[in-house]
Amino acid sequence: MDITEQCVVALTWTLKDTLGDELDVLDEPVEFLVGGDDLLKRIEEALQGHTVGDTLQLHLEPEDAFGDYIDTLIFLEKRELFPQELEEGMTFEGSALPQGCNPEAPKDALYTITEIYPEHVVLDGNHPLAGIALRIEIKVEAVREATEEEVGRGSAGTGFFRIQPQAPGSDLLH
């Protein structure tokens, strides 16, 4: 079966920056809905017409991946506003930031704690891969028709490219 809109693909990949440093490896196949919200549009376009066993190598500029790095999404907040148990790498949804944080911080962003000082905390609302050109080698492991439920929700249930709030110490992107 060839990959088309509204099908589910199982993929493995290696994601690197343009210097060749490995950023993420997906060894076990994970399913993604093509034509939904699971994959970047540039990856979906490249997958069209491919089938099981095919390997693709893509170069993604920031505008095709996670966008440019935006300095105005960096916020310095009072340390006392945050829970006592706070670690770098923890994430907060903008709509769930503690009371007293900068009201200019967009509510629809996901903020990562990038630095903790005795008096302040640095929040970064950029995607961790914003501003970075990427190289990704993708292998198509399986292709199947999407279910009505998957099409209805726009996802096969895996959203690698939508960074989710994560536990402290977790550096996985998927």
Element pattern in H and E: EEHEEEEEEH
From the N-terminal CA to the C-terminal CA, the straight-line distance is 26 Å
Alpha carbon gyration radius: 18 Å
Tell me what portion of residues adopts beta-strand conformation: 35-45%
Sheet of most strands: 4 strands, antiparallel
Read across the widest sheet, the strand sequence of neighbours is: 2-1-8-3
CATH architecture assignment of the largest domain: Roll
Total E-strand runs: 8
Please give the CATH class of the largest domain.
Alpha Beta
Q: Extract low-pLDDT stretches.
A: 162-174
Structural class: mainly beta
Which word captures the global form? elongated
Helix content: under 10%
Report mean pLDDT, rounded to a whole number.
90
What's the number of helices? Answer: 2
